[in-house]
C-alpha cells in the first residue's frame, strides 16, 4: 500500500466510522425529546423510562462521536496539509461554528442527563431539544464544508493563489443546501429504521413488549416519514449534480456517451474498456428528466470528460445503485407501515411487519455509507473540484500505511466497545426502565 492510497484509506475509514455516530447524534435526541414530551403530557411513566433509556444511548454515541470527530480534525491537517494550507482560511467558518454547536450540545446534554427532578420540567425538556437542534446544526455545518469541496466558492484563484476570500460565500456555496437536506433526511431515515428494528426484535422475542412497542412507534414514524421524503431530496441533489458536476453524474449512471433522451440505468456491470454497461435495465429518457427536468434533454457522458478528470466509474456506479436500491426498499416498508397505521390496523400486530423492520435495521446506514462514497469518490481526482487534485494535497510524510493500520485497530476496538455497551443497555431495560411491563 503506497502512501497516497494509505492516506485516502485512512480518511475514508475515519469518515465512514464517524458518519454513523454523527447521524445518530443528529437524530436520537429528537426521539428522546418526543418521548419526554409524551411523558410530560400524559404522565405515563413508561415514556419517562424510554426517555431515560434513549438518553443513555445518546450519551454513548456522543462520547464516541466526539472522539472520532476530533481524530478527523487532526487527520485533515496531518494527511492533507496542502489542502488545509489553502482551504483552511476559506472554509474554516463552518468548522468554527460547528465547534460552537458541539459545545452547546455537550452542555445541554449534561443538563438533560443530570437534570431529572432538579429543573423545571419544561426547562428540562427544552435542554433535550437543544441537544437535538445543536446536533443537527453541527451536521449541517460540516456538510456545508464538504459541499464547498464540490462547488468551491468565496475566493478567486489567480496565478496559483487564493485571493478575495469571502467565508460566508464559501459556507453558503451552491451545493450546501441540496447536500445538507439530503444528508439530514438520510440521517433521520437511517437512525429511525435502526432504532425501530432493534425494538421490533425485542417485541418479536416478547421481551418487555409494552416498553419496546412504544419505543418502536416513535422511531418508526420518524424513519418512515424520512424514507418517503428522501427520494424528493435525492431528485434535488441529482439535478444539482447534473448541472455542477457532470462527470460525477456520468460516473453514477455509468453514462458513457453524450446523448439526448438519455436512459436511466438500473443495475448493470460497467464495461469501462468497451464503454458500455452489461445486464442493465434501461428506462428511456429518465436520466435526462432526472438531471435536467426534461425527458429529451442532452446529458453529458464520460466521452466528453478527459480521462484524467474521470472519477472511478465502477465504484461510483455501484455505490449509487446500492444507495438508491436500499432507499427504495425502505420507502416500500414505509408505505406498508403507513397502510398499517391508517388502513389496516391488524397489520400492526403481524409478525411479518416487525420482521421487515428487523431486516431493515442496517439498511439506512449502509445507504448513508454508499452515498458518501458517491459524494467523495465521484469528485475524484479532485479534492477541491476543478481547483486542486487529491494527489497534490496529500502529506509527503512516508510510512502513512502504519498509521492506517493503527487507526483501523482503534476504530475496530471502539466499534466492539460500543456494541457491547449498547447490548448491555438493552439487557438492563427490565431492571432499570420497565419493571412493571413484562
From TrEMBL:
Chief localisation class: membrane
Give yes or no: UniProt keyword Metal-binding: yes
Domain of life, per lineage: Bacteria
Which key words tag this protein in UniProt? Cell membrane, Electron transport, Heme, Iron, Membrane, Metal-binding, Transmembrane, Transmembrane helix, Transport
Record's bilayer topology term: Multi-pass membrane protein
User: InterPro entries from the entry?
Assistant: Cyt-d_ubiquinol_oxidase_su_1
Residue intervals passing through the bilayer: 15-39, 59-80, 100-116, 123-149, 181-204, 216-233, 318-340, 352-374, 402-423
According to its UniProt record, where is this protein located? Cell membrane
Family the entry assigns: Belongs to the cytochrome ubiquinol oxidase subunit 1 family.
What the entry lists under PANTHER family is as follows: CYTOCHROME BD MENAQUINOL OXIDASE SUBUNIT I-RELATED, CYTOCHROME D UBIQUINOL OXIDASE
Q: Under which name does UniProt file this protein?
A: Cytochrome ubiquinol oxidase subunit I
Which organism was this protein described from? Pedobacter segetis
What is the phylogenetic placement of the source species in the record?
Bacteria, Pseudomonadati, Bacteroidota, Sphingobacteriia, Sphingobacteriales
